[in-house]
From TrEMBL:
It comes from Lupinus albus (White lupine). This is Putative nepenthesin. CDD domains: pepsin_A_like_plant. Keywords: Aspartyl protease, Glycoprotein, Hydrolase, Protease, Secreted. GO terms for biological process: proteolysis. It comes from the Eukaryota. GO terms for cellular component: extracellular region. Belongs to the peptidase A1 family. One of its GO terms (molecular function) is aspartic-type endopeptidase activity. It is found in: Secreted.
């Protein structure tokens, strides 16, 4: 998902060289008193955005978090679910055969002067794995992409301009970004979602496409709590200036596992209050951090240990007579509950979670534990546990960093 580091020279030494450097590979616009650079892509790594941090608003819709950006020329508003567990960027397109309802119009390729089709023999199409791509009757590159929650998108791979915001309030058009123009899309979406912005490790992901142009494959997000009004945004930043630094920052190494797009880390255990529970998984990279998943998923045995310890430390009786919640650990009220503090123990990084990150309200007056069991031996660290933290992914250094923050006040 820009501002370079400060240079302490007199401005007279910089003006002409800076102008020459910029004009050599980009088109400059003056936007809100600052520079906006249109990247010229055949190879976007040849361009650098010098003054701003690439940065756009981020909103919560109680389940997922959507980034605000625009598609096409002229720009069409777009809200895409941020997903660190996948690679493809896609939006619903006009004339689709099966689309879910959304609050804004579907993207219309015919109305965009910068839309370009991708054909099967082209390099962009070859970035799709064989399982995901086919060829249409017109030799256009077609894709089918599915997700863990059974959501699916099918359509045509294409190129177009995606426009983001910046830290100075300007706009940054990114030209010839590879994306999916979805014509058959279904799954767990609502009107405030218009597609998905894949932020994984693969070459098709948004951060892989734009990272070389903005100081490296780095991005950070600050996710507001699930019950925050949609109109109260936080922010997502990309490239130089997105690093998570300062007092209170903890970091843990990232691990790769084949071609998987996931951000694997090593989970060592959890503490509930002063009681430590070991994850008992000797392998490195046993968990991945997923902004597209709501709940944190753990292997059945370890999940049961964690639930039993939480029951011991919450001074209330759990709900046992509500068929809607089944066997989830839920309570009828958590007003002013400050404990237990649950500490996540990643390798080299301890992260304290309060009830705002460990319980959610599926219906009025009912609060449920934001962890669930899984049949897999690989854990998933969901977005509820990431709320009110500035989380930074740095693929250049292969670390992910965490810093506690009030994300409702982080739009700056």
């Amino acid at each position: 998902m820009i501002m370079a580091y400060p240079i302490f020279f007199h401005v007279s030494f910089l003006c002409v060289p800076l102008f020459i450097i910029l004009i050599s590979f980009s088109t400059i616009e003056v936007v809100n008193g600052g520079f906006s650079v249109k990247l010229i892509r055949k190879n976007s790594s040849n361009a650098t955005h010098i003054l701003d941090i690439v940065q756009s608003p981020l909103h919560s819709n109680r389940v997922d978090h959507v980034i605000e950006m625009s598609f096409g020329t002229p720009p069409t508003k777009y809200y895409g679910v941020i997903d660190t567990g996948s690679d493809l960027i896609w939006t619903q397109c006009e004339s689709c055969t099966k689309c879910f309802p959304q609050e804004y119009p579907y993207f219309d390729p015919q109305e965009s002067s910068t839309y370009t089709s991708v054909y099967c023999q082209e390099d962009e199409c070859n970035r799709l794995s064989g399982n995901y791509k086919t060829c249409s009757g017109q030799n256009q590159c077609s894709y089918t992409y599915s997700y863990g929650d059974k959501s699916i998108t099918q359509g045509l791979l294409a190129l177009d301009t995606i426009t983001l915001g910046s830290s100075t309030g300007g706009v940054i058009p990114l030209q010839q970004i590879i994306f999916g123009c979805g014509y058959r899309n279904e799954g767990t979406f609502n009107g405030q979602m218009m597609g998905i912005v894949g932020l994984g490790r693969g070459s098709l992901s948004f951060i892989s496409q734009i990272g070389p142009s903005f100081g490296g494959r780095r991005f950070s997000h600050c996710l507001v709590p699930y019950d925050t009004d949609f109109l109260i945004p936080s922010v997502m930043s990309f490239g130089s200036g997105s690093e998570v630094v300062g007092d209170g920052v903890v970091s843990t190494p990232l691990f790769q596992n084949g071609n998987a797009p996931y951000y694997f880390v090593t989970l060592e255990g959890f503490s509930v209050g002063d009681t430590y529970l070991s994850y008992n998984s000797p392998s490195k990279g046993n968990t991945f951090i997923d902004s597209g998943a709501t709940l944190t998923k753990l292997p059945q045995n370890f999940h049961d240990q964690l639930v039993n310890e939480v029951k011991k430390q919450v001074p209330m009786d759990p709900i046992t007579d509500d068929p809607e919640i089944g066997d989830k650990l839920c309570y009828r009220r958590l007003t002013n509950l400050q404990e237990p503090i649950i500490t996540t123990h990643f390798e080299g990084a301890n992260i304290q979670l309060t009830p705002i990150q460990t319980f959610y309200e599926p219906k009025e007056g009912v609060f449920c534990f934001a962890f669930e069991s899984s049949n897999s031996n690989v854990g998933i660290y969901g977005n509820y546990a990431q709320t009110n933290f500035l989380v930074g992914f740095d693929l250049e250094r292969e670390v992910v960093s965490f810093k506690a923050a009030d994300c409702t006040k982080y739009l700056s």
